[in-house]
């Protein structure tokens, strides 16, 4: 079954730790995205990729980094987590303009 | 001013009611419009995709786009308690695969 998977679903971590949020999709989509979502706020694009070895920063400034070594995999890394990084992170993928498929999200809490 | 404005609600309606959800936007370059449904603790799920102006119907859902007024709507007929969720609008211009999202409207359908 074609889908997009995010792990972990929930993560509580201490300040200063390095973390990687995983995102994989089985649909063969060439475009992938990371969004940040806070309660009552719109989704903010933080990174996107239009193909292997192609990554761009989104509209919202973020201290995270991403990589796209394989079509299906688009991990997001925070080198040193801070409480201000507490949020929900949503990964999505698409083929064209006809909408994104989203993962279930990772809810990150930095204490 | 935000590019996409959406009333956050909450909007409470009785079961069986017709629900109207709306978004306004300021960028006349937007041509691609989407509606997503997001249940609590889940990722957004694509409901409707529309290109340019006009209406599109899918089961109990109808999407309308009025580009002259920069206004889009999602109608839900015969609403059910299972429709209780947050509904997000999203829009995009030609030449980009990035979408701008609204803040979402929280809908509660009361049994």
Describe this structure in words.
- The complex is a heterodimer of chains A (111) and B (111).
- Chain A is an all-beta fold and 111 residues long.
- In chain A, a hairpin with a 6-residue loop joins strand 9 and strand 10.
- Chain A is globular.
- In chain A, 36% of the residues are buried.
- In chain B, the strands form two sheets. In chain B, strands 2, 4, 5, 9, 10 and 11 form a six-stranded mixed β-sheet that branches. In chain B, strands 1-3-8-7-6 form a five-stranded antiparallel β-sheet, with no helix packed on it.
- The mean pLDDT of chain B is 94.
- At the A-B interface, strand 4, strand 5, strand 9 and strand 10 of A face strand 4, strand 5, strand 9 and strand 10 of B.
Helix content of chain A: under 10%
Subunit organisation of the chains:
heterodimer
The rounded distance between the terminal residues' Cα atoms of chain B is: 37 Å
Q: Can you count the helices of chain B? A: 0
The largest chain-to-chain contact, stated as pair and per-chain residue counts, equals: A-B, 27 and 26 residues
In the predicted model, the low-confidence regions of chain B spanning at least 5 consecutive residues are none
Approximately how much beta-strand content do the residues of chain A carry? Answer: over 45%
Unreliable spans of chain A are none
Number of strands of chain A: 11
Essential attributes:
heterodimer, A: about 110 residues, mainly beta, 7-stranded mixed sheet, 4-stranded antiparallel sheet, globular, B: about 110 residues, 6-stranded mixed sheet, 5-stranded antiparallel sheet, 11 strands, about 60% strand
